[in-house]
Design goal:
alpha/beta, Rossmann fold, 262 residues
């Protein structure tokens, strides 16, 4: 196994070395806001964090209540494609930067494998794993789970069994039911559909759109048009025509003579 677990990142290695030193010398703060000691040293929290929202922030903040340090693993684009069967909305590099900038997050790293939690947890020296309460079977008592929910619950039941055998703790954090990535995407789609409908209605109300089934009448040019005098066209005067022809011939002759002289 690579050290630290398949990342080979100097940033991660330096973080672990510094935190071990701070822990040993008492420089690491273990007190929470209420003045009590946090029960765990280093926590591990994973997620896609696509279209980062308030629920994601609360999850990270809740995890920070239990540990001195929090390592957050952000799913790569490849993991999202494999698990969610779609393209990520926000690219991995941007999602990683967002999570890294959150106050309290010790370090953010990539999650390359959705089904391997113990590998990075053990390599990074974590003593607690955090996840969402949406993966608790007890949350679905009295209602039928979707195939996706069933798969998620079974996956985390396996993780919990493996963690307990390794002496690790798993904490299920409360899920923010009022907001989710799926809900946000659905809301955007609904609003976009409403906007398209309103624009279509506006066009139909204010612009005449011909219907191919309508019977169109041919305009009779002999009929009077409102605003135009109904007078017959007069024939041109023959003398006027003769004057125009003479002027034209004179201009042409003068042009030819000038061209020859040059």
């Amino acid at each position: 196994m690579n050290k630290p677990y398949q990342y080979g990142d100097k940033l991660v290695e330096n973080f672990i070395k510094q935190s071990v030193y701070r822990r040993a010398t008492g420089l690491l703060t273990s007190l929470d806001k209420e003045g009590g000691y946090k029960p765990f040293h280093r926590g591990y929290y994973t997620g896609a964090f696509d279209m980062f929202h308030y629920g994601h922030l609360l999850g990270i903040q809740n995890a920070l209540k239990y540990c001195d340090q929090l390592i957050v693993a952000v799913s790569t684009d490849e993991v999202i494609r494999e698990y969610k069967h779609r393209e990520p909305i926000i690219p991995f590099e941007q999602r990683l930067a967002i999570v890294s900038a959150i106050k309290g997050v010790s370090i953010a790293i990539p999650q390359h494998d959705l089904y391997d939690k113990l590998g990075p947890v053990n390599a990074l020296g974590c003593d607690v794993i955090f996840t969402s309460s949406e993966y608790l079977r007890s949350n679905y008592t009295g209602k039928e789970m979707t195939p996706k929910e069933q798969a998620g619950v079974e996956r985390w039941e396996t993780f919990q069994e493996q963690a307990m055998e390794s002496g690790l703790n798993v904490i299920y954090l409360p899920r923010t039911d009022s907001v989710s990535t799926t809900e946000i995407k659905d809301r955007v789609v609904t609003q976009q559909q409403q906007l398209i409908t309103e624009e279509k209605s506006y066009i139909e109300d204010d612009v005449l759109i011909p219907n191919p089934n309508d019977n169109f009448s041919v305009i009779n040019t002999e009929q009077d048009f409102e605003g135009f005098p109904n007078e017959p066209l007069t024939q041109p005067n023959p003398q006027d025509i003769k004057v125009i022809e003479d002027l034209t011939n004179s201009a042409l002759t003068a042009g030819i003579d000038n061209a020859v002289s040059q």
